[in-house]
Backbone:
């Protein structure tokens, strides 16, 4: 990748390059720094004529602030850390919104003033993360007024941002919270080749979507393979075939590469102009290119700043997509709905791509015909395999633990050694890694956000319920306490007021 | 997939059947099977620890503790296993649909403009060779109601109870139920209002009564052609109260209207959907109406679902309503997960198991034949490797009509083909073809 001499974007590009080399933590640190820099850069652009134009990379910044939480010691529990470890009779200490310590019960002591919760018989896991949700953009109630998930007007709508559709009053968020969901990625739908940008949220109710946005999380780009785009556009000018789909992707990447170069050239020219101390220096700086929202997103994906989320069912299409990614120099982070991932699990692992799958949905269309219950397990079993269980559904998101349980059990039956401490990664650390937030959440590690679920038993059971859900150390849901069960505006005062919905309905 | 291809697959499946199941498979000819020392959930009575189930000639011959295996019986040691009746999916389109979005692989529901509804008969389109059947059978489902889905008219048509053996003669009861959609689904088919939907339903029932009171007279009278004669004919057993009418409704208001209609027309009614049924649980119990619902639906998804809650079935059961759970065609196996989730929300375990075994059998007049482990009943039996309502549990053996079933299926074969991706001497497409 090209290097540039200026600050904000350069930092961001370096950061975003890093995941290609596997340096997750470093990348995210750099991304942190870059977002702050970008904000500064944007303010400065407005004020100073003598600065190069730099489009604001974060114009709708997160305003989320963690809610207050106590210092809490959860002790005596079976702890699944999310990164493969299981601690029997373990403790998790939460302080200042962060995980402060994790270990054997006798190795973690409560500081003065801490509330100690005897979690004997309970299981403690990281907060559950859904990499594929449409909460907020296909909210409840579902009708024409609220249907905001698919911009079905052109095969390439990379210019739309899912966050602009998210209705924070979707009751589905509350139900997901009761299922242990602490973070989620809301994606545009799959009608288009390029559906638009995703947004990553903390599952904390807010008046605005900005108040839910996961601070400094990378954006994602939603793309779709196969049947959906060709079905939707087959009689609307195309693409009408899978080859049409690919022609559409490739043409867009070519355009995006040119756009990226145009801006890179401009910044280089600007730098040159700025440093020019000769007598014949041009009076006016070079003119910035016109912005294009669609290409800005695609160029962001090419730069590695935006994760690529590819809806793709069929094995052969996934392999084609991997070649395309190489052709244009970008990285596919995750194949979503990867029904046939097990057929190419080796390719996926070699290419460092995650497969986000359902446990057992199938048959609603031909490309979803070949599912197997062992899909996630077979992806997981590859060296470097990255399996994720996702929902794509306002009901499924409430029980990703059960979906992971089914997939784990099917894998075990064919002799793949998967323990709960492994499979919990499918709904915690693996989606966090794919979404670019693993440095801050997704596992129970000291220093990370205290996104924690206390289950009333083994979460890999149909009978398990999330009893307490902490987000950044704040107790946001308590199954035993109706006052800790958020209710959305839409649900208030319905009928005779005796039923107001909410997480604990 | 055509029938011949399917037959090939099934043959190969039988041949490829794993060694572990070989003992069971050999029992196919023996006809007498003794399942010994399992935890037996009869559903009709108490759980029998270390219980035995003797199957003979397709029927359950004996259930109890410390039984003696009859001479010549195939003996299955079920120590540490759980034995239950086969699961019964009370409402689905299995057998009518192969792939949802493929027109020529989906016979579940007619398209826009097609005039008939009630007269559609599921058995006419039934494909016992469907690959969905072995997939769901391997998960312990032995019976299902195969129902059309509503097209342009409010009536979906006549549903049949089938067994999941995949045999050509696997129809247990043709015309076991009629289905109609009310609520929002009815309204969109009847001028946009619920008033319209109920008015159209009453018209059909009145018209059917008029026809059946005197068919010859009816056909001689002039009609405006709004009611197809075949639909009115098909509604005969419904207006007689013989054939259950499954009514899709969700809101408490619609359910109250349905109860009035049931009482006026003396219908045998089953509620499907019922997301707000808990609000009228006592009235439903008094009217003796069963409810087929979801144990996982808890969103105000439509304005008729505003009070949907995970506690729906627990509350209905408390009021004395018989409940069951439905899933569409491909995953009727998930009725088990529904039952487990309902139990996690307060439904007693026994009621949860009955909801997916005995209750559906009683809905369709088969309660004396199916749904529990009692001597004399049809031997649909499942041996599980654990708690039958737990998501991590799987069947180890499935019997339908007393016959041990092949648990292999297309998904299993795909998995076997691809579980080892290393390059062999021939492409992967040669694997599993032997």
Residues:
């Amino acid at each position: 990748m090209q290097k540039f001499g200026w600050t904000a974007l350069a930092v961001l590009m370096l950061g975003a390059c890093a995941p290609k080399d596997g340096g997750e933590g470093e990348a995210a640190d750099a991304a942190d720094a870059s977002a702050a820099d970008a904000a500064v850069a944007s303010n400065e652009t407005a004020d100073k004529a003598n600065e190069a134009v730099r489009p604001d990379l974060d114009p709708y910044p997160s305003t989320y602030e963690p809610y207050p939480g106590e210092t809490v010691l959860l002790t005596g529990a079976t702890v699944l850390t999310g990164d493969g470890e299981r601690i029997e009779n373990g403790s998790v200490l939460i302080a200042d919104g962060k995980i402060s310590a994790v270990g054997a019960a006798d190795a973690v002591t409560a500081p003065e003033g801490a509330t100690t919760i005897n979690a004997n018989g309970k299981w403690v896991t990281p907060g559950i993360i859904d990499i594929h949700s449409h909460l907020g953009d296909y909210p409840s109630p579902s009708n024409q007024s609220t249907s905001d998930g698919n911009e079905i007007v052109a095969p390439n709508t990379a210019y739309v941002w899912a966050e602009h559709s998210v209705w924070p009053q979707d009751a589905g968020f509350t139900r997901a919270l009761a299922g242990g969901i602490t973070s989620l990625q809301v994606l545009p739908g799959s009608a288009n080749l390029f559906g638009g940008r995703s947004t990553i949220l903390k599952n904390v109710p807010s008046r605005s979507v900005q108040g839910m946005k996961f601070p400094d999380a990378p954006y994602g780009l939603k793309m779709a393979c196969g049947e959906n785009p060709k079905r939707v556009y087959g009689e609307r000018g195309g693409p009408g075939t899978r080859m049409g789909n690919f022609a559409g992707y490739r043409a867009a990447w070519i355009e995006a590469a040119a756009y990226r170069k145009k801006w890179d050239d401009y910044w280089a020219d600007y730098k040159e102009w700025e440093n020019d101390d000769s007598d014949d220096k041009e009076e006016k700086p070079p003119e910035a290119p016109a912005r294009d929202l669609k290409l800005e997103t695609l160029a962001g994906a090419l730069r590695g700043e935006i994760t690529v989320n590819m809806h793709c069912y069929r094995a052969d299409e996934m392999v084609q997509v991997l070649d395309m990614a190489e052709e244009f120099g970008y990285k596919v982070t995750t194949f979503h709905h990867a029904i046939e991932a097990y057929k190419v699990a080796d390719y996926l692992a070699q290419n460092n791509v995650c497969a986000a799958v359902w446990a057992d949905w199938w048959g609603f269309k031909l490309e979803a015909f070949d599912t197997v219950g062992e899909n996630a397990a077979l992806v997981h079993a590859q060296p470097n395999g990255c399996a994720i269980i996702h929902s794509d559904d306002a009901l499924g998101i409430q029980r990703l633990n059960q979906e992971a349980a089914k997939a784990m059990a099917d894998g075990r039956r064919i002799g793949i050694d998967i323990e709960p401490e492994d499979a919990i990664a499918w709904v915690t650390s693996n989606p966090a890694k794919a979404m670019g937030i693993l440095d801050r959440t997704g596992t129970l590690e000291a220093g990370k956000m205290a996104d924690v679920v206390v289950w009333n038993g083994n979460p890999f059971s149909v009978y398990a319920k999330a009893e307490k859900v902490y987000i950044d150390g704040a107790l946001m849901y308590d199954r035993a306490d109706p006052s800790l069960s958020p209710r959305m505006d839409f649900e208030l005062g319905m009928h005779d007021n005796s039923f107001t919905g909410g997480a604990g309905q | 997939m055509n029938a011949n291809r399917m037959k090939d697959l099934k043959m190969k499946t039988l041949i490829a059947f794993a060694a572990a199941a070989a003992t069971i498979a050999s029992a196919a000819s023996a006809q007498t099977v003794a399942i010994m020392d399992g935890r037996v959930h009869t559903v009709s009575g108490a759980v029998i620890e270390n219980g035995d189930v003797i199957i003979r000639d397709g029927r359950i011959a004996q259930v109890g503790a410390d039984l003696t295996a009859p001479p010549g019986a195939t003996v299955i040691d079920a120590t540490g296993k759980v034995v239950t009746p086969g699961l019964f999916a009370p409402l689905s389109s299995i057998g009518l649909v192969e792939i949802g979005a493929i027109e020529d692989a989906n016979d579940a529901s007619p398209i826009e403009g097609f005039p008939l509804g009630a007269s559609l008969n599921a058995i006419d389109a039934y494909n016992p060779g469907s690959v969905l059947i072995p997939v769901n059978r391997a998960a312990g489902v032995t019976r299902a109601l195969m129902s059309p889905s509503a097209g342009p008219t409010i009536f979906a048509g006549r549903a049949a109870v089938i067994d999941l053996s995949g045999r050509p003669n696997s129809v247990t009861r043709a015309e076991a139920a009629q289905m109609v959609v009310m609520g929002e689904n009815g309204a969109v088919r009847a001028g946009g209002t619920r008033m319209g939907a109920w008015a159209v339903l009453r018209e059909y029932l009145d018209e059917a009564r008029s026809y059946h009171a005197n068919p010859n007279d009816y056909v001689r009278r002039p009609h405006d052609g709004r009611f197809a004669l075949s639909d009115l004919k098909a509604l005969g057993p419904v207006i007689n109260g013989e054939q259950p009418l499954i009514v899709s409704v969700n809101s408490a208001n619609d359910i109250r209207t349905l109860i009035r209609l049931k009482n006026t027309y003396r219908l045998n009614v089953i509620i499907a959907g019922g997301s707000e049924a808990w609000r009228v649980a006592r009235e439903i119990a008094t009217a003796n109406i069963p409810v087929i619902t979801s144990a996982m639906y808890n969103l105000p998804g439509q304005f008729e679902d505003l009070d949907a809650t995970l506690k729906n079935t627990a509350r209905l059961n408390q009021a004395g309503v018989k409940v069951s759970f439905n899933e569409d065609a491909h995953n009727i196996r998930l009725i088990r997960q529904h039952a487990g989730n309902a139990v996690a929300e307060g439904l007693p375990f026994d009621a949860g198991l009955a909801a997916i075994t005995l209750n559906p059998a009683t809905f369709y007049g088969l309660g004396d034949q199916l749904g529990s482990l009692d001597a004399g009943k049809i031997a649909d039996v499942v041996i599980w490797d654990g708690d039958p309502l737990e998501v991590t549990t799987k069947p180890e053996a499935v019997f339908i009509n007393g016959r041990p079933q092949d648990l292999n299926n297309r998904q299993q074969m795909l998995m076997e083909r691809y579980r080892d991706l290393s390059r062999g001497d021939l492409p992967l497409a040669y694997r599993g073809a032997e």
